[in-house]
Design a protein that fits this description.
The complex is a heterodimer of chains A (636) and B (313). By secondary structure, chain A is α+β, with helices and mostly antiparallel strands. Chain A contains 20 helices and 21 strands. Chain B is built from 13 helices and eleven strands. In chain B, helix 1 runs antiparallel to helix 2. Chain B is globular and about 70 Å long. Classes of the chains: A alpha+beta (636), B alpha/beta (313).
Chain lengths: 636, 313
């Protein structure tokens, strides 16, 4: 036997816990402390039978309300509100245990969960929502019993029956949720992010390349974008995002390319990438080099094939890129050499000297490039992200003294040396590499994969991709180390969940859902048994569920008031079963040996077998009789 | 529904079953239903269970005239209807009325009469008049025939053909009374003498007006007629049955159900009424296939009732 109020207490505590958990990391310290202590205090008071006065709680609530109300402002709405919700929940947890309080706790838990979506849209929300849905339904069912008889205790079989009812209604609400999910609009980024003063930290890629500005770099592992595609060789994974074509004041920056420049977009077999960027600050749309076209989002592509879209900075969006992996960007007509040879006066002296030497030794641009490569190799440079040279002369220090740096040093130096030697060049910003997620079939690109390399113009070929970082020792190992480590692989696995969550829920789109189902089906097929069996089974189960729900609703809807009363009466007399076909309602009532049942049957049949609908008064009396009978049944 | 007519009848039933015919509530009630629906009743049981006592009691309590025929193989139709005898004083034939000219007629052991006699009597039952030598005589109203037959006797009997069984509204057995009741009856001995002194509780007029009231006031829903129709069709489609319940059977079930509803104090027919009368009114009308002759017809009808759902809403 399980006492109902005990069960309810546990259930409501659980509801509060689940509701507040997704919000908890975003709360301020005060509510973070108050919440668990209030819950524990409530439990202890309940155990000892102490009932603190309700006015005390009201006073505390009011006090805290004013405390937070003072902090409300135009730029500060969500945080005080969320904290206030959490505090109210805490007060409820500590306070009295009444049906009203239970209902309030359930509502507050739901509000807290809703508030958490203002801060983040993680898959945890879905888990919490589903759990809350089921638990609150159970709590409501139990509350209806509790309201009738607070001292009710339930035996194991009764609990099992109740469990079935709860499972049915919970399942139904889940299906409803699915239905509403399909038709209702949704936000794609946490709403709080769109408010002024809030934002995300910058990604590893920035709008300028300035080696020597900091002694160490730590780009972090934040995800920049995911790209669903077939896996490629690591040499081809250059995600080209932006071209920096002007060097001034120690930094490479981007200027609009010269007007006549027009790249030839590759044709033929293209690799399709479905790219899901996190909302970022930069408007560039990366794609595998060389990108032929980008679709799915409003964007503009410059002559040097840099695609920008303001949409990416505003909301979560997706786009498709089509590329032919390669290292040469052909052009329709010769470039504006002057534009790509411009140099500032104050170049680092040793670098300028080396460039001049290469320019005079090499006969052709191609020769000069290989001379530069020889120079880099002979300098024996190392790839490193710490202990970096800084200052205005950092490139000289990097090349000739410290001999270690990261991609920006390599790319900047090479581009400057080539320009100094009279070869048009530019620095390209983007990402290199990526962790392929076999399960989801996509690459994950993180901040630390941000990379810079160069493009050198060779007469007759066009812009050729040259990555001077690969000439360094230690660069190849770095890539390997990145992909091999166990924790990284685990993180990759965990990312699959996030990927599907964002794909299926945050950026929901029916067409894409179908593709997703297909892909999942293929993956499962590859893993274990015939796909048809599973997919057809799933479809059949879903179809049966949907059809039965529709039928049930239709049936329920079709019932006249008489039929509904009759059904309730029969359910009361013959719990869980249909009555035998040769029994009329009068017989049934006589068998119950209860004058109220007989009265019900007489009243009911006198209307039905007179072929007239029940009157309002009759209906009320019948309902009252049913209620009385049911109450008796519950008591016995 | 409070109704003086109904109260009087219920009072009569109670008096009969309480004082004279203990343990025969069902048979008494069915007899009253037959009387109120204007039909006839066939009691089918072994001798000595009170068939005649039942008939005599009914006649006595109703204040009606009573006639009795003991059927034998040499019983002639004129022994029932009456015959013309030459009156020498008046020098013409005068018609001497037979026992059928009574309100209640007990035809004992009807299966021992010749088919010719049986059919003469059954015709009179159906048409409620007798034609002798070109003159038609109306039978009195109310008119109730209580026929009895012994199902176990085989030699020298002429079983009623199916077509004539159909003319009886109700066929029922009496059955043995409960043991303690029977013991009391045995101790007390025969009550034939007492029956003669039963004070009449109902008049013929009261019965006729009640019959009219039942016909006019008890409401019959389409749901109920639909239910009866389904039952009838189910008997016709039953694999063991050659011929199911006829249209007359359906009419009779409806009449009896109405009377049952009236006695139950309702002004509408409920499925319970149909269920209560279906077996006594319907079972004897079923004609089984030759190979199933031995089967219990009541059992067959009961299985039909179990399979047709009652209209509930």
């Amino acid at each position: 036997m399980m006492r109902l109020n005990r069960l309810l207490e546990i259930l409501v505590l659980l509801i509060a816990l689940i509701g507040v958990l997704p919000l908890y990391p975003h709360l301020e310290p005060l509510p973070r402390v108050i919440l668990p202590s209030a819950a524990i205090a409530g439990l202890i008071l309940q155990r000892k039978g102490i009932r603190p006065p309700a006015t005390l709680f009201t006073a505390v609530s009011l006090l805290l309300f004013f405390f937070y109300a003072l902090r409300f402002g135009r730029d500060n709405v969500v945080v005080p509100a969320a904290n206030l919700l959490a505090i109210f929940l805490a007060v409820r947890l500590a306070g009295e245990r009444s049906n009203r309080a239970y209902l309030q706790t359930c509502a507050l838990a739901l509000f807290c969960l809703a508030a958490s979506t203002l801060f983040s849209l993680s898959p945890l929300f879905l888990v919490a929502l589903v759990l809350l849905l089921v638990l609150i339904v159970s709590a409501l069912v139990l509350l209806t019993f509790h309201e009738t008889d607070p001292l009710l205790a339930l035996s194991r079989p009764e609990l099992a029956t109740l469990g079935k009812v709860i499972a049915c209604s919970g399942g139904a609400s889940l299906l409803l949720m699915l239905f509403f999910f399909a038709i209702l609009p949704r936000t794609q980024i946490p709403l709080w992010d769109t408010m002024p003063g809030q934002g995300r930290k910058a990604s590893g890629l920035s709008d300028r390349v300035q080696p020597g500005s900091t002694p160490t770099i730590d780009a972090g592992r934040g995800i920049v974008f995911r790209a669903a595609m077939t896996p490629l060789g690591s040499q081809q994974l250059y995600w080209r995002a932006v071209v920096f074509n002007r060097y001034s004041a120690g930094a490479w920056v981007r200027q609009p390319p010269p007007p006549g420049e027009e790249s030839i977009r590759p044709r033929g077999a293209l690799i399709r990438q479905a790219i899901f960027p996190e909302a970022g600050k930069l408007p560039y749309l990366p794609g595998i080099n060389v990108t032929a076209r980008i679709s799915g989002v409003r964007s503009t592509t410059a002559g040097d094939l840099v695609t920008t879209s303001p949409a990416v900075t505003r909301r979560r969006t997706t786009y498709e890129a089509f590329s032919a992996p390669g290292d040469t960007l052909a052009l329709r007509r010769p470039i504006d050499r002057h534009f790509y040879l411009r140099l500032p006066k104050d170049l680092p002296p040793r670098l300028a000297a080396a460039a001049a030497k290469i320019g005079s030794t090499g006969k052709t641009d191609r020769e000069r490039l290989s001379l530069a490569q020889e120079l880099f190799r002979s300098l024996d440079l190392r790839y490193a992200t710490t202990n970096l040279p800084t200052g205005s002369n950092s490139l000289d220090l990097f090349l000739f003294d410290r001999k270690q740096g990261y991609c920006e040093f390599f790319a900047s130096s090479l581009a400057l040396i080539m320009r100094g030697a009279g070869v048009p060049s530019r620095v390209v910003g983007g990402y290199y590499g990526g962790n392929y997620n076999e399960l989801g079939g996509y690459y994950v690109i993180t901040d630390e994969l941000a990379h810079a390399w160069t493009e050198i113009y060779l007469e007759g070929k066009g812009w050729v991709t040259v990555d001077p970082s690969t000439w360094a020792s230690g660069f190849a190992e770095l890539g390997n180390e990145r992909t091999r480590s166990l924790s990284r692989r685990l993180a990759t696995m965990a990312d699959t969940l996030n990927y599907y969550w964002e794909l299926a829920v945050i950026t929901y789109d029916l067409e894409r859902q179908l593709q997703l189902v297909n892909r999942a089906g293929e993956q499962i097929h590859r893993l274990t048994m015939p796909r048809n069996l599973r997919r057809n089974g799933l479809v059949a189960v879903l179809a049966v569920a949907a059809v039965s729900i529709v039928l049930l609703l239709a049936r329920r809807h079709r019932l006249s008031p008489e039929e509904r009363l009759l059904r309730q009466f029969i359910a009361l007399v013959e719990p869980g079963g249909e009555m035998p076909p040769e029994t009329g309602i009068l017989d049934l009532a006589t068998r119950m040996e209860d004058p109220r049942a007989v009265r019900f049957a007489k009243l009911y049949s006198s209307a039905v077998y007179h072929d007239r609908p029940l009157g309002r008064g009759e209906r009320r009396e019948l309902t009252a009789l049913l209620k009385a009978l049911r109450t008796d049944r519950l008591r016995s | 529904m409070s109704n003086p007519q109904r109260d009087a009848i219920l009072n009569a039933i109670e008096t009969v079953t309480g004082s004279y015919l203990q343990g025969k509530v069902r048979a008494v009630k069915l007899s009253f239903i037959a009387l109120l629906s204007g039909g006839h009743i066939l009691l089918e049981d072994i001798p000595g269970l009170g068939k005649t006592t039942l008939a005599l009691t009914l006649a006595g309590i109703l204040g009606l005239t009573f006639g009795r025929i003991q059927c034998t193989s040499d019983l002639l139709p004129s022994d029932i209807t009456g015959l013309s005898i030459f009156n020498r004083d008046e020098n013409r034939f005068t018609f001497i009325r037979g026992p059928i000219f009574n309100n209640i007629l007990l035809a004992d052991e009807i299966n021992r009469a010749m088919p010719k006699t049986q059919s003469a009597m059954l015709e009179a039952m159906e048409e409620r008049r007798v034609t002798v030598e070109g003159v038609t005589y109306q039978l009195p109203v109310p008119f109730l025939v209580i026929a009895t037959q012994n199902p176990t006797e085989q030699v020298g009997t002429y079983p009623l053909p199916e077509s004539q069984m159909d003319r009886f509204l109700i066929r029922t057995g009496l059955g043995y009374p409960p043991e303690e009741v029977e013991q009391a009856i045995i101790r007390h001995g025969s009550i034939r003498d007492e029956i003669r002194e039963i004070p009449p509780l109902l008049s013929a007029e009261a019965i006729l007006s009640t019959q009219r009231a039942i016909r006019d006031q008890v409401y019959l829903s389409d749901k109920i007629t639909g239910y009866i129709m389904k039952l009838i069709i189910a008997t016709r489609e039953h694999p063991l049955v050659a011929a199911g319940i006829s249209t007359r059977g359906g009419i009779n079930i409806t009449q009896a159900a109405r009377a049952h509803a009236f006695l139950d104090g309702r002004d509408y027919v409920a499925p319970e009424d149909v269920l209560a009368v279906a077996i006594p009114v319907g079972a004897h009308r079923l004609v089984c296939r030759n190979e199933n002759e031995h089967l219990d017809k009541e059992e067959i009808l009961r299985s039909v009732l179990r399979n047709v759902p009652v209209p509930l809403a």
